[in-house]
Amino acid sequence: MVKALAGEYAEAANPENAAGMSAYMRDHFPFHGIKAPERRTIDREIRGRGPKRPDHHYLVKVARGCWTRKEREFQYFAVDYLRKHYRRLDPGFLDIGREFIVTKSWWDTVDILAGGCIGPFVRANNCVQEMDSWIVSDNIWVARTALLHQLGAKEDTDAERLFTYCLQRATDTEFFIRKAIGWSLRQYARTDPHAVRTFVEKNDGVLSPLSKREAMKHLGKG
User: Fold this and answer.
1) Exposed, middle or buried: residue 188 (CB in 10 Å: 0-12, 13-18, 19+)?
2) N or C: which end of the chain has fewer CB within 10 A?
3) How distant, in Å, are the alpha carbons of 33, 44, 121, 131, 194 from that of 127?
4) pLDDT attached to residue 221
């Protein structure tokens, strides 16, 4: 699958687009330069060549194969593939998921893994307590994943855990942590705006201005 993907990506490569995409990601990664709509079309076609019900080992092998490739589009394919089939991953996947989070780390892959794969996975496998160790990690991307893993939980959000995590990292000066605190709160505010407003007001002197601004973005005053 990865070899087939490489062939399709090479044919669709656009060096001019690639330069702009890499610059947008602060030149952390090279790109083939394939815009998202075209890339998604290619990805769907390639996924269709694989098994309809891929098992854990197949999913991990494909994802690791994509992670060895230098162009960023491969990592996008991997995180989308894992997100699509997270229910087919074995209970021990978290260690592997962490491997992807700490390797070639940047918000574009970490955030999809956090909210689209890791979060649904830990809820489906009743291992959300594993996030309790991730939130205190010295690696900002692991901690960011813990903060964002409930993005799609809605009414199933563990609010106590969410608020505890936000306070645990509230004094962190790292931009990506402060932003994640605000984002996680803003997302939960769609489900329980009163709880988020109360939490932010109660911890006004602890949360950073960035976190508070992001959390309250759609709540307004009162």
Assistant:
1) buried
2) C
3) 38, 31, 8, 8, 28
4) 59
Instruction: Kindly report, residue by residue over 76-109, the tens digit of the pLDDT.
Output: 999 999 999 999 999 999 999 999 999 999 999 9
Q: Do 119 and 152 meet the contact criterion of CB atoms below 8 Å apart?
A: yes
Question: Could you give phi then psi for residue 103, rounded to 5 degrees?
Answer: -115, 130
pTM: 0.95
Looking from the CA of 41 toward its CB, the CA atoms found within 13 Å total 5
Q: Could you say which DSSP state residue 115 is in?
A: I
Task: Classify 220 as helix, strand or coil.
Answer: coil
**Integer CA distances (angstroms), 60 to 21, 95, 202, in order:** 27, 11, 43
Tell me how many degrees the CA angle 18-96-163 measures, rounded to the nearest 5: 90
Among the listed residues 155, 149, 159, 147, the one whose alpha carbon sits nearest the alpha carbon of residue 117? 149
What average pLDDT does range 140-166 have in this prediction?
A: 97
